[in-house]
Design goal:
CATH architecture: Roll
CATH topology: Pnp Oxidase, Chain A
CATH class: Mainly Beta
Number of helices: 6
Number of strands: 8
Number of domains: 1
Largest sheet: 8 strands, antiparallel
Helix content: 25-40%
CATH superfamily: Electron Transport, Fmn-binding Protein, Chain A
Oligomer: single chain
Shape: elongated
Length: about 200
């Protein structure tokens, strides 16, 4: 990864992880890769997610708990002519934020930790509340039947690509094209370009 794209600010990284709607969990067993999108919640150096106690995801995790996890937030597609007048396709790209994580998944057995993880997930997915707390006995069977997993983060890399590597002329040319196209995502992209410059 080019260092100019790398983000190390933990506040920026934590904000992105808090706001991401889902991530993609990449697994491997017997040299066969498998990836699955999942809802998740992040706390400290842990990612929690949940699911069925059976199925392909659980079988693979039990066989090989080493995983990768990625989060991507897409921004504007940058047409090749946004930054070049040479009529080449090569400058075409998309600006984005991404986080890549390597770690090991553990199946959570402790009821209190399961309740904590499920509570954190609900606080993220349904912040307005309006549900009974998970320590209510009406959840006992569901909690027992639900697999709660924790991914202990071993390595995290964040990459934000917003034209930081471009010279002033190409950078401003892109901003001009985005201003002319003027979609909501283009406005957000311009803000990010200026913030990351």
């Amino acid at each position: 990864m080019k260092q100019i794209f790398e983000i190390k600010d933990s506040v920026i990284i934590n904000n992105m992880m808090r706001n991401a709607e889902y991530g993609t969990l990449a697994l491997s067993s017997d040299d066969i890769p498998y990836s699955v999108p999942i809802n998740f919640v992040h706390e400290d150096s842990i990612i929690y997610f949940h699911g069925s106690q059976s199925g392909r995801k659980m079988q693979i995790i039990k066989a090989n708990p080493k995983v990768s996890f990625s989060i991507v937030e897409n921004f504007s597609i940058i047409a090749s002519y946004f930054s070049s007048s040479e009529e080449l396709a090569c400058p075409a790209t998309q600006f984005f934020k991404s986080i890549s994580i390597d770690g090991k998944v553990k199946i959570v057995e402790d009821k209190d930790e399961k309740i904590k993880a499920l509570t954190l997930l609900m606080q993220k997915l349904q912040p307005e509340g309006r549900y009974k707390p998970f320590d209510d006995e009406s959840y006992d069977k569901m909690i027992k039947a639900t697999a709660v997993l924790r991914l202990d983060i071993k390595k995290l890399r964040a990459k934000f690509k917003f034209g930081q590597h471009l010279d002033k002329e190409r950078f401003e040319m892109i901003i001009s094209h985005l201003e002319n196209r003027d979609t909501d995502i283009d406005k957000d992209t311009i803000k990010m370009m200026k913030a990351q410059r």
